[in-house]
Description:
alpha/beta, disordered C terminus, binds magnesium ion
Amino acid sequence: MGLIAVASAKGSPGATTTALLIGALWPRAVIVAECDPHGGDVAARMSASGGGTLDPDRGLLSLAAAGRKNLHAELVPEHTQQVVGGLDVLVGVRVPEQSAGLAHQWGQLGPILAAIPGCDVIADVGRLGAATPQNVMLTAASDLVMVCDDQPSNVVHLRDRMLALEPALRPSSTNGTRIHVLVVTDPRRGRPVKEISDALGRAAAPVTDVHLLARDPKGAGFFAGRVDGRADRTALVRSARPVVAGLSSATEVFFVPRPETDQGAGPAGSAWPGWEKPQLVRQPVDGPSLTSAGGEPR
Ligand SMILES: Nc1ncnc2c1ncn2[C@@H]1O[C@H](COP(=O)(O)OP(=O)(O)OP(=O)(O)O)[C@@H](O)[C@H]1O
Ligand SMILES: [Mg+2]
């Protein structure tokens, strides 16, 4: 029922990996949607949950075609596929040329992904530029997670992008889109995170919080189809847990986990031992579909 966008401002710091990671740790039912107009990576990198390859034509493009006349939230789950590990993914376009065909639908996509009954969406929106088409989705998100590496020059791009987005996202207002920064760096060194946080603060960049995300090729490999050992023991997953806990509790309204006894032990044959796919039930409530961290209606 809520939308969290994951993006970058420069380079390839790990936005796709982070979107999958957040989705894998999300405590409520969730779809990871690849909304990067430059092309998605999941179909090429990951296999389907039962083995075999993912269908690259079933996802964002087939959704857009099915919803050409009437794109609505209930259509989305029909176009998702389950990847190894049990995560439901809306596979993105293969090449940038295909995203041109989505034209006006970018504008519809944000509100639709934010309104799927019974399910939150983590959207990988890729690299944000001044006029990238996916920018229009961001106002529908409760939170935008900007992933960056620890190179000082890239932090400048991050700061400038956040300042450029501020008028549209109004991150400090109750109904705005909060912006979080994840710095991919050596997990033993907290210093780059402090430096980046200070630099963003000096520039009055509209950031809610800055966190460390471990630079960890082995952990990242799980989200690129290289499954080796236990994902939950990797530095990447351990560093992400508190971040995901904060994000998910700030956006929690509609769903509660089933009691312990009802919970499945994760997808059969999961290649991610120790992983448990949340089994959730809808809790009837009255009122708005999403609240901000302060509990105010969005
Ligand atoms: N936390 C991390 N630690 C180590 N390697 C990582 C991490 N996150 C991502 N990577 C690796 O970096 C490469 C790029 O990652 P990814 O595709 O997620 O980046 P991206 O920002 O989505 O890039 P693009 O702009 O091309 O979409 C991949 O090889 C991935 O495995
Ligand atoms: Mg990517």
